[in-house]
Amino acid sequence: MRALIVGYGSIGRRHAEVLECLGLAVDVVSRRHDAEARKVFGSIDAAVAKHGYEYVIISDETARHRDSLAVLSSADYRGTVLVEKPLFATIEPLPRNDFAHAGVGYNLRFHPAIRALREALRGRTPQVAHLYVGQWLDDWRTGRAGADSYSGHRAAGGGALRDLSHELDLVGWLFGAWREVAALGGRFGTVTADADDAWGILVSCERCPLVMVHLNCLDRVPRRAIAVQADGQSIYADLVANFFRADGETQTYSVEGNATYGAMHQAMLAGSNEVCSFEQGLRTVELIAAIEQASAERRWIGRAA
Predict the structure, then answer these.
(1) 299 Cβ partners below 8 Å, 6+ apart?
(2) What is the CATH classification number for the domain harbouring 75?
(3) What is the reported pLDDT for 144?
(4) What is the model's pLDDT at position 141?
(5) Could you tell me which of 10, 151, 133 has the C-alpha nearest to residue 86?
(6) What is the pLDDT of residue 142?
(7) Cis ω on the peptide bond leading into residue 86 (within 30° of 0)?
(8) Are 278 and 150 in contact (CB under 8 A)?
């Protein structure tokens, strides 16, 4: 099987390594020319015209995602497509397409602690949930300051709210569609060039009336965890220490660095509906827009019917 990766920054490199470990041949669309032994094309059109790809990964800057999808569709590509998260930087319609299967790269759905948490919630009604993620932006990419990367620039689709939107995807995946949201956030430090670096968010969801989400790229000690209270049970998943705990009983996991990406790609190629769909990805983009509106206007924002 042959795959094409559009965008060859740090996440594009990771996707390439994972796919090659899964036995796929990988080509790249990039303005860079350091793709090791991989074949590099200057445009999506040129790559698709040359090879019959079965799998395409869109991993360029978030602000370019929709244009890249539109070009891919206009090239009459009909295979499987995965777009790096978030799907788009702002609310936009999906381009018309005939993709066989499409998804968004929220790989944390495949972390064993998250899967254990989701299973523990089956048949239970969550009352309160708290999701927290924080990591110093300069530590995200080895040898490159955060302010010099797209993550540090708002116009490129960077910032904590979008780059750390895994938690917003998990809000919907674990607790159902959001109903209303209030938030406060923005650029409070100096780690980014001009993008947001911290958010405090309150969300009411279909299956959980109170969900608190904290996102930041300021924590010097990485932290990523979810705590849920459901029908008298205390449930906790730690994605840094890799463990799941329910009422004092703990299960620890060995999670290799690319394991969740590998599981996501395997599910994607198998046509699994556990991968975030375009529809679900658009709902997360809508939530991001509502969060920014809620913070700017200092009021609760309800989801349109």
Answers:
(1) 182
(2) 3.40.50.720
(3) 57
(4) 60
(5) 151
(6) 61
(7) yes
(8) no
Q: Which two tokens stand for residue 179?
A: 């109903």
Residue 270 belongs to a domain with what CATH number?
3.30.360.10
pLDDT in tens, 45-64: 999 999 989 999 999 999 99
Say yes or no: 38 and 186 in one domain: no
pTM of the model: 0.94
How far apart CA 9 and CA 138 sit, in angstroms, is 15
Three-state secondary-structure class, residue 229: strand
* Residues whose CB is less than 8 angstroms from the CB of residue 219 and which lie 6 or more positions away in sequence, other chains included: 134, 135, 136
Nearest one of 95, 107, 97, 217 to 151, comparing CA atoms: 217
Tell me which residue range forms the domain holding 115. Answer: 108-302
Q: Which residue has tokens 């990964």?
A: 57
Position of tokens 């300069």?
138
Look up residue 218 and give its two tokens: 């300021």
pLDDT-flagged residues of the chain (< 50): none
CA atoms of 252 and 260, how far apart (whole Å): 16
Of 104, 132, 166, which closes a domain?
104
- Taking the C-alpha atoms of residue 216 and residue 280, their distance in angstroms, rounded to an integer, is 23
For β-strands 210-216 and 126-134, DSSP reports them as parallel
Q: Any idea how long the chain is?
A: 305
Q: From residue 5, how far is each of 29, 101, 105, 123 by CA, in Å?
A: 6, 16, 13, 40
Tokens of 199: 């958010």
